[in-house]
């Protein structure tokens, strides 16, 4: 069929028009939806600038916030008139949190959010790294160390007004363990709670035989598989948070949407524009609401470090770095030289260790002398000074300082420090004097600019001190994980961060030969025995001693890994914000302060 | 013509079907699953996750269930990485953002590229021509990875004219749209120039000159129209790519678009999101190429489809 | 079949295919007279020489550096400055020519050869053949190339993962991959996608061109399909093809940058311009030289390609004489 010129023209334009109309329709709808939000943000910023210092800003904010919120905020003002002029604090979350569900959170962004929306039985004080009471005002351990009884405070409320009870905590624990919930982090609980593993793997279907019992509305009893001195630490983790059964049952997977979610923490969720921003407001029903000084937290999701840095400098972010995105290392020298920025820079310790592992059954790394030589040839201090620049601590042992059971490696003389002469001697003793005849070996990392820089630098050190050429290979993250589990290369990188600050989370959960995380096939009966005994041991002094022995085997005698450095959290904070630093887990915004600039 | 269009629309069904099939098996043959983590969990826990998302089923059955969901409810499945959202949610949230940005960038590319190309062609081998060539090549050779941060630095931080990043007001859209449009503008400018030069020497243009037609009429009605064929051909797939989102620009400017999601979903092995976004992109490509083919008949009436 | 409207061959202006010297020799002569094109050609020649003889030209090795000199600014010691490990940037740019130029040239060559042939056939024969061939192009467009690249990378870099260790073909390809710093998979990724737009471009132009009188005349004169395509159609659509392809060269180089940015790049310490840009852009404000010079290398290369491309286009234009 042949159409006339005119008809074709009409047809073409109508199709084009239709397509454009569809497109515009999509756009306009979006624009309409976005408009109120945009106004809020824009005007709020202006208002804040103009307000004289004495006036409480919260009141000004009220006018711009959507109707239903107005009530809430007004209530805040009435119930708890904040002493210092709090305001909106803008921070960078880094990425979109994959979930806000305490049962499912497993990445640092989600955990950061969840820990501010919910509170658990206990809390880790970020300053002292000690376990403190939170929802449970006290707890009692049975003599055999197997049963913990938690007594809950009765003034704790959910954001919908209901009281937080032991039932909610029990529900939360059982829901996390439930195979239908399919939680990755349930592994923390299956390893310790009585019958937790059987329930999680479906061998038991009756939740009442799991070691979680409600004794009274405010009394919860948890029974363990084996004694564990570190259990109060686990009780602070999000996997043991109370969860609102009624909201979860009513809304299913969508219960974490702003309109459905019920929380019990210092903050509650106001708005969540996916991959763009997430806004939390102070929860007036939180039992320590008086101590919460920042009324509104606005999390931005900026993945690119340099963009976040520019936003910080332009004044669109109040804090950057630590667990809130990161300060680009390329800018560190500039920041240190800048008069204003250098005062805003802080470097705090972080409970994370970066290490290179050796595959101990793969020649030539089946020879302990080769592993020792490679470890001794790494000049960690130079790596930190010239490449990482963030004041990281060279690591000689695995467990990061700040954890219970971490060893002061330098003082105790544990681990293999940088010593090129010894490195050469060890390699010669292994049969490769000056690197002669050394077979081709591979160093593998999952690609990221930071890992690449470290790999290139360390490979250059091996070349310099040992005369060995190492082939550097990078793999896409998930392929890399698969490679580690099936056929690990000679040398590989990994990092480990504390879930709870106890050496058990490090030595036992990573390098026990039964641990699924033990990638390098390091096997030592003595090591296993030491860490398992330490897990059960109740006497802190004895535990420290056991971990010291275990560290010595891992990083010195067997040299299964070469710890490289302990992370620091490098952060920039505007002068009008006073912040604390969480060495692990989420930031505790309820301890932050902010003033009008 | 109507029959031609109808046939092409029907053809898109088998193409999309084969596309989904290949993508499905391609993504499943890559090592690493959606629930592998740096902290290895016991295999029972991983089994729970796989059971929940039916990854324990044989592949053919997973594929059948997946396609049945699409056919019956247009349901593209849940996201594995964003646990509270479905693929439909993700497309609904993020496609409009990418489409807005893309439409704006495309407008910039066409609005600057085509006129620049025409001028360069008309003034061939003059300084105007060289300048436009130089500008176009510069625009093409600066990767958006460098151009984006550079524009942010100048316009947001130094001049305080525009916001740094994120997606809120129309002002937020300017820098990313320019970054995205610059390279394509350059391509269109050069292509228009080359194509114009070719057409200007055709017999019918000479005839038009001989007939004494006014210059603008010759340029626009005769020359430009025919010169547009290569330009429009290139614009078709460009349209599909740009509307469904581009990773680098969305990443640099922290824009909640679909392009960022697609790349992230591959890294996460978020199978349903990979499938959903790929099919969506495939759909746009087919539609764009169809529009291009229809437009040929409009531009050059000699082209006919049987 | 092609619709033949007028059977009377009233001597349409068939472009004479090159007089007595032949089309290519003729074109080469005209190209040599174009100063800009010659300049572009010389620059490209220099780049090729730099790539081949990098060890003799570069002042230092690409992996050689001292941490104390990291981020050194351009000056006497390092002409273009140094990178995070104190490695000489100039040397790395010179070595980087190897990867980047290869990626660009291989990409453009593949795209042109496959695209022109595929598009010519599809456009010239039209009808059902055209439909099948173009639907295949739609399909290829839709394939997520990134998945393919990751998969290929796995096969080459960790063949034991997918159980193909013993396959001699994979083994041989892995050796090649190793020898060129692990960029083989980039070629494959580019090869699967680069020709698509080109084939549609050529097809679109042929759809229009084949209705013109000189094609009809050639048909009447009994020319074979191949002769019509290569002698009559090719010179008429070569202009946009060359321009589009010379402009796509940076695209291929940037694809490599993109891949190294998202974590699928060339193995270190092998440098590439794309990799250097993606490594340096973050430090743009502290160490501008890290991104400026690789980007300049890219721009100069592109300018050279374009001048040469323009010259080629003019030289091959059948009407310009």
Name its key features:
heterotrimer, A: alpha+beta, D-Maltodextrin-Binding Protein, domain 2, Dipeptide-binding Protein, domain 3, 3 domains, four-stranded mixed sheet, 19 strands, B: 306 residues, MetI-like fold, 12 helices, 76% helix
Structure overview:
The complex is a heterotrimer of chains A (597), B (306) and C (321). In chain A, helix 1 packs antiparallel against helix 2 (57-64) and helix 20 (525-536) runs antiparallel to helix 21. Chain A is of the alpha+beta class. In chain A, the strands form five sheets. In chain A, strands 11, 12, 13, 14, 15, 16 and 17 form a seven-stranded mixed beta sheet that branches. Chain A has a four-stranded mixed beta sheet with strand order 1-10-9-8, with helices on one face. Chain A has a four-stranded antiparallel beta sheet with strand order 4-5-7-6, covered by helices on one side. Chain A is built from 21 helices and 19 strands. Mean pLDDT of chain A is 83; it is low at 15-84. Chain B is mainly α and 306 residues long. Helix content of chain B is 76%, strand content 0%. Chain B is built from twelve helices and no strands. Chain B has helices at 2-29, 43-52, 59-73, 87-122, 127-141, 144-158, 170-200, 203-210, 215-243, 247-252, 258-268, 271-299. In chain B, 57% of the residues are buried. Chain C has 321 residues and is mainly α. Chain C has one domain (37-320): MetI-like fold. Helix content of chain C is 68%, strand content 0%. In chain C, helix 2 packs across helix 4 (89-125), helix 4 (89-125) packs parallel to helix 8 (184-209) and helix 5 (127-142) packs antiparallel against helix 8 (184-209). The longest helix of chain C is centred in the last third of the chain and has 38 residues, at 225-262. Chain C starts with 22 loop residues before the first helix and ends in a 5-residue tail after the last helix. Chains in contact: A-B, A-C, B-C. At the A-B interface, helix 1, helix 10, helix 18 and strand 16 of A face helix 1, helix 2, helix 4, helix 6 and helix 11 of B.
Alpha plus pi helix count of chain B: 12
Q: What gyration radius of chain B follows from the Cα positions, in whole Å?
A: 24 Å
Provide the CATH superfamily of chain C: MetI-like
Could you spell the SSE succession of chain B in H and E letters? HHHHHHHHHHHH
Report the structural category of chain C: mainly alpha
The largest sheet of chain C is: none
Strand content of chain C: under 5%
Percent in helix of chain B:
over 70%
CATH-wise, what's the superfamily of the domain at 91-257 in chain B?
A: MetI-like
Low-confidence stretches of chain B: none
Count every beta strand of chain C, where a strand is a DSSP E run of 2 or more residues: 0
* Structural class computed from helices and strand pairing of chain B: mainly alpha
Number of strands of chain B: 0
Q: Ends of chain B: how far apart?
A: 8 Å
* Strand/helix succession of chain C: HHHHHHHHHHHH
Largest sheet of chain B: none
Q: CA-to-CA gap between the ends of chain C?
A: 33 Å
Low-confidence parts of chain C, pLDDT < 50 over ≥5 residues?
Answer: 1-20
CATH class annotation of the domain at 91-257 in chain B: Mainly Alpha
Number of domains of chain C: 1
Strand fraction of chain B:
under 5%
């Amino acid at each position: 069929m042949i159409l006339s010129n005119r008809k074709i023209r009409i047809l073409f334009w109508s199709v084009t028009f239709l397509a454009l109309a569809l497109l515009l329709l999509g756009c306009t709808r979006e624009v309409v939806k976005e408009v109120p939000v945009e106004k809020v943000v824009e005007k709020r910023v202006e208002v804040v600038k103009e307000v004289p210092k004495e006036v409480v800003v919260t009141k000004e904010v009220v006018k711009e916030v959507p109707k239903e919120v107005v009530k809430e905020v007004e209530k805040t003002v009435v119930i708890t008139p904040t002493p210092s002029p709090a305001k909106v604090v803008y921070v960078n979350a880094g990425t979109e949190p994959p979930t806000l569900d305490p049962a499912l959170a497993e990445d640092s962004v989600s955990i950061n959010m969840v820990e501010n929306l919910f509170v658990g039985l206990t809390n880790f004080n970020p300053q002292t790294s000690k376990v403190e009471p939170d929802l449970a005002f006290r707890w009692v351990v049975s003599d055999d160390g197997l049963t913990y009884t938690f007594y809950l405070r009765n003034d704790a409320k959910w954001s919908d007004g209901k009281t937080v009870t032991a039932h909610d905590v029990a529900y939360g624990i059982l829901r996390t363990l439930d195979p239908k919930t399919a939680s990755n982090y349930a592994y923390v609980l299956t390893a310790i709670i009585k019958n937790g593993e059987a329930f999680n793997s479906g061998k038991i279907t009756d939740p009442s035989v799991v070691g979680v019992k409600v004794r009274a509305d405010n009394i919860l009893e948890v029974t363990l598989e084996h004694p564990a001195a570190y259990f109060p630490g686990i009780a602070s983790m999000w996997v043991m948070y109370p969860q609102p059964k009624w909201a979860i049952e009513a809304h299913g997977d969508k219960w974490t949407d702003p309109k459905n979610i019920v929380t019990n923490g210092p903050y509650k969720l106001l708005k969540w524009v996916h991959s763009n921003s997430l806004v939390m407001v102070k929860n007036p029903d939180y039992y320590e609401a008086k101590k919460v000084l920042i009324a509104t937290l606005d999390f931005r999701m900026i993945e690119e470090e340099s963009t976040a840095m520019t936003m910080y400098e332009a004044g669109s972010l109040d804090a950057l770095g630590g667990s809130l995105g990161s300060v680009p290392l390329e800018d560190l020298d500039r920041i240190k030289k800048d008069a204003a920025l250098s005062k805003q820079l802080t470097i705090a310790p972080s409970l994370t260790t970066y290490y290179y592992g050796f595959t101990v059954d793969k020649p030539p790394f089946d020879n302990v002398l080769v592993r020792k030589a490679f470890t001794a040839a790494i000049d960690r201090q130079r790596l930190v000074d010239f490449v990482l620049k963030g004041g990281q601590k060279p690591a000689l042992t695995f467990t990061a300082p700040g954890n219970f059971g971490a060893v002061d490696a330098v003082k105790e003389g544990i681990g293999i420090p940088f010593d090129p002469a010894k490195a050469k001697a060890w390699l010669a003793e292994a049969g490769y004097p000056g690197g002669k005849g050394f077979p081709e070996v591979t160093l593998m990392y999952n690609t990221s600019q930071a890992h690449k820089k470290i790999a290139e630098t360390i490979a250059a050190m091996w070349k310099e001190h040992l005369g060995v050429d190492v082939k550097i290979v990078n793999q896409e993250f998930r392929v890399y994980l698969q490679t580690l589990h099936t056929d690990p290369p000679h040398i590989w990188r990994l990092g480990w961060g504390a879930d709870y600050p106890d050496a058990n989370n490090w030595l036992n959960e990573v390098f026990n030969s039964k641990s699924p995380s033990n990638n390098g096939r390091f096997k030592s009966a003595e090591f296993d025995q030491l860490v398992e005994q330490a897990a059960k041991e109740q006497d802190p002094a004895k535990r420290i001693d056991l971990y010291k022995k275990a560290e010595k085997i891992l990083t010195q005698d067997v040299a299964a890994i070469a710890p490289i450095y302990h992370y620091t959290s490098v952060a920039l904070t505007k002068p009008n914000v006073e912040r604390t630093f969480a060495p692990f887990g989420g930031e505790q915004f309820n301890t932050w302060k902010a003033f009008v600039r | 013509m109507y029959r031609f269009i109808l046939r092409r629309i029907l053809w898109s069904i088998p193409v999309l079907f084969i596309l989904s099939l290949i993508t499905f098996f391609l993504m499943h043959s890559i090592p690493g699953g959606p629930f592998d983590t740096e902290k290895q969990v016991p295999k029972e826990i991983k089994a729970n996750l796989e059971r929940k998302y039916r990854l324990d089923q044989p592949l053919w059955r997973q594929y059948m269930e997946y396609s049945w969901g699409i056919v019956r409810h247009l349901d593209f499945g849940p996201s594995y990485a964003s646990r509270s959202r479905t693929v439909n949610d993700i497309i609904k949230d993020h496609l409009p953002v990418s489409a807005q940005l893309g439409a704006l960038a495309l407008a910039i590319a066409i609005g600057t590229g085509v006129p620049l190309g025409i001028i360069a062609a008309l003034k061939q081998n003059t300084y105007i021509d060289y300048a436009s060539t130089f500008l176009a090549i510069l625009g093409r050779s600066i990767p958006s990875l460098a151009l984006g941060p550079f524009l942010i630095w100048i316009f947001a931080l130094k001049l305080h004219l525009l916001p740094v990043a994120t997606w809120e007001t129309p002002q937020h859209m300017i820098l990313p749209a320019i970054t995205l449009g610059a390279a394509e503008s350059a391509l269109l400018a050069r292509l228009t120039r080359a194509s114009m030069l070719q057409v200007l020497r055709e017999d019918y243009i000479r005839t038009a000159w001989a007939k004494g037609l006014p210059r603008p009429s010759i340029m626009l009605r005769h020359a430009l129209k025919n010169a547009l064929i290569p330009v429009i051909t290139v614009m078709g797939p460009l349209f599909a790519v740009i509307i469904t989102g581009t990773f680098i620009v969305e990443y640099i400017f922290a824009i909640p678009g679909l392009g960022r999601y697609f790349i992230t979903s591959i890294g996460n092995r978020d199978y349903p999101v990979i499938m959903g976004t790929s099919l969506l992109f495939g759909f746009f490509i087919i539609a764009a190429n169809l529009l291009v083919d229809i437009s040929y008949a409009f531009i050059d009436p000699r082209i006919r489809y049987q | 079949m092609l619709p033949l409207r007028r059977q009377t061959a009233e001597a349409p202006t068939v472009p004479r295919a090159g007089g007595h010297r032949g089309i290519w020799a003729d074109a080469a002569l005209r190209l040599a007279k174009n100063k800009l094109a010659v300049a572009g050609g010389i620059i490209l020649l220099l780049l090729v020489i730099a790539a081949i003889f990098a060890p003799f030209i570069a002042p230092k090795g690409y992996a050689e550096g001292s941490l104390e000199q990291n981020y050194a600014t351009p000056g006497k010691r390092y002409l273009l400055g140094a990178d995070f490990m104190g490695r000489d940037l100039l040397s790395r740019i010179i070595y980087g020519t190897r990867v980047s130029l290869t990626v660009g040239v291989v990409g453009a060559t593949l795209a042109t050869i496959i695209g022109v042939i595929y598009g010519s056939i599809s456009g010239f024969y039209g009808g059902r053949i055209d439909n099948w061939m173009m639907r295949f192009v739609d399909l290829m467009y839709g394939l997520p190339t990134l998945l393919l690249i990751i998969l290929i990378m796995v096969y080459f870099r960790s063949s034991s993962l997918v159980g193909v260790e013993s396959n001699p073909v994979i083994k041989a390809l892995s050796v090649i991959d190793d020898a060129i710093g692990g960029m083989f998979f980039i070629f494959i990724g580019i090869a699967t996608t680069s020709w698509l737009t080109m084939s549609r471009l050529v097809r679109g132009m042929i759809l229009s061109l084949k209705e013109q009188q000189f094609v009809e005349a050639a048909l009447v004169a009994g020319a074979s399909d191949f002769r019509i395509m290569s002698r009559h159609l090719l010179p008429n659509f070569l202009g946009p093809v060359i321009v589009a392809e010379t402009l796509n060269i940076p695209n291929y180089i940037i694809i490599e940058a993109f891949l190294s940015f998202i974590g699928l790049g060339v193995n270190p310490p092998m440098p590439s311009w794309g990799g250097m840009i993606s490594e340096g852009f973050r430090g743009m404000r502290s160490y501008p030289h890290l991104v400026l010079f690789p980007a300049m290398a890219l721009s100069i290369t592109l300018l050279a390609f374009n001048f040469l491309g323009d010259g080629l286009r003019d030289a091959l234009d059948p009407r310009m004489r």
